[in-house]
Amino acid sequence: MKTILWATLTANGNYAQSGPENPPKKEALADFATHAQAAGNFIVGRRTFEAMRGNGGGGPFGEVDIVVVSKNASEIPGVTVVRSPQEALSYLQQKGHQTALISGGADIHNSFLGQDLVDEVIFNVAPVLEGKGLNLLINKDNYQYKHVKLLGCKPLGGDVIQLRYAIDR
Ligand SMILES: NC(=O)c1ccc[n+]([C@@H]2O[C@H](COP(=O)([O-])OP(=O)(O)OC[C@H]3O[C@@H](n4cnc5c(N)ncnc54)[C@H](OP(=O)(O)O)[C@@H]3O)[C@@H](O)[C@H]2O)c1
C-alpha cells in the first residue's frame, strides 16, 4: 500500500498552523477533499480530528474511511481509532485500500516521517509567513538528510502552490 503525506507549509517553510483567524485556504481544502475521496481514507491525529469536528464535522467525507490515531481515546462514532501509525496502515491495508492518505497534524506527520512510513509527500505552499512555529522532520534528535524526487508542481489557485515528491525507502 502506498502512503501519501499531505501537508500545508507556509511560504517561509514552517508546517502551517491554522485557526479561526487564519483558516486554511479553500483551494487547499478542496485539494485535500479530492485526495481523500481518491484514496477512500485519511489518517489523522486525535487533536486535529477534534479541531475538524469542532469546525463542523470534517467536510464532505461520507464514504471515506477516517482513521484517528490516539494513545488514549476510546471509541469515536463513525471513525476507527488506532493506537499507532503502523496500526493505522495495517487497518487500511486489511480493508483493501491501495493508498493511505496521512493528513496531519504535526505529531502524526512527524511520527510517520520518523518511522520511514511515507512513500510520497504533497506539500501545499500557502501564501502566509509565520513566526516561531512547527516543522516537519525526518528525525527529531539528530541532523539527517534524504534526497527526494520531484514528481510535480502546480498552482492550486488562491496563490497556493502544490509540490509533490517521491521518497525512496
Ligand atoms: N500544515 C498542515 O497540513 C496541518 C494539518 C493538520 C493540522 N495542522 C496543525 O497541526 C497542529 C495540530 O497538530 P498536533 O501535533 O498538535 O496534533 P495531532 O498530530 O493532530 O494529534 C496529536 C495526537 O495524536 C496522537 N498521536 C500522535 N502521535 C502518535 C503516535 N505515534 N502513536 C499514537 N498516537 C499518537 C496523540 O493522541 P492522544 O493524546 O489522544 O494519545 C497526540 O496527542 C495545529 O496547529 C494544526 O493547525 C497542520
UniProtKB/TrEMBL annotation:
Domain of life: Bacteria
Lineage: Bacteria, Bacillati, Bacillota, Bacilli, Bacillales
Protein name in the entry: Dihydrofolate reductase
Key word NADP present: yes
Gene3D superfamilies found in the cross-reference section: Dihydrofolate Reductase, subunit A
Keywords: NADP, Oxidoreductase
Domain Bacterial bifunctional deaminase-reductase C-terminal: 84-161
Pfam families tied to this protein: RibD_C
BP terms from Gene Ontology: riboflavin biosynthetic process
Organism name: Cohnella terricola
UniProt xrefs under InterPro entries: DHFR-like_dom_sf (IPR024072), RibDG_C (IPR002734), Riboflavin_Biosynth_HTPR (IPR050765)
Gene Ontology MF, one: 5-amino-6-(5-phosphoribosylamino)uracil reductase activity
